[in-house]
């Protein structure tokens, strides 16, 4: 279904164009936001504020849908050269591992991991995106040393069911549902919830989920996933000739919900609240919760594969701290510093970080003290919350 000859730079502009017409260009007035971008008052939105540009040509949408998860490399010499140049700009994290480890000395490393396409391979059925046992082991080990967070578009409960490590932080719904580790403390109910900036949107999301199920049921292969604060309409298994129709149906639903916006992931249309909150904000929130808001002694490492991870890469660039690592087999426009080709490489890199730290810990006494302090601090912060 995917056109293997699609040119990457065209792909990126198609996505950018489609996102622009879809409402990404629309942001609520900053004066209405609460501190930290916390929930907007739903009453502030009216139909008249809905971007007219949403009616813009569907061609851009279908192009973007086609390009949203290109899987094959072209072997033309031009593309090979392009790939070489891209790798020079975003070297493999495995190739520069020593550099990363040396930057980590005397710093508190904090690990952020996307789920789909990073910890698990991209598969046809979203319910079967399992993590390899080696990956789980690698994540479990790295979390013994460093605060480790999973930052995913999926709802928190679902991503937790795949990962099943209670010692981690989880930021589900693209960072709109953050919770600290439950392993260290027994708590009832949802006392542990640290941050749900889109909480007020929950009834709307539930309502729209029902409408989308109804609207898309005539399209074979379409699958609507309820990710709590975000709804995912998958088209990986929809015939390409029906993509236009699917996009139209989704957009027609959104016309009645100006407080929601439409974005795209890998063969998925995503509907989410129009609040200024994304994976980058989630990263900042977690660093702040850990006591590293303005610290020079922290080294965040974020590994992700998707457009939504770019928000986190951007935050790291802006902070001038840590490393963004993009998991991708093909060159993509990215704010990440380094790259990895696919999830098994990410697993290897995570294991190497953990082993590297064991070595640093045994040879650099100050570094190991620093790591211990960080570990203790991150336990204390989350034990004191709730
Ligand atoms: O932020 P992430 O953890 O990467 O989640 C993004 C979306 O991932 C899932 O969809 C993607 O992976 C599926 C399984 O491999 C694949 O079938 C689908 O085409 C991809 O878009 C998940 O199902 C979505 O809800 C997430 O938003």
UniProtKB/TrEMBL annotation:
The keyword tRNA-binding does not apply. Pfam families: Trehalose_PPase. GO terms for molecular function: trehalose-phosphatase activity. Pathway: Glycan biosynthesis; trehalose biosynthesis. Signal peptide: none annotated. Its cofactor is a divalent metal cation. Its EC number is 3.1.3.12. NCBIfam families: HAD-SF-IIB, T6PP. This is Trehalose 6-phosphate phosphatase.
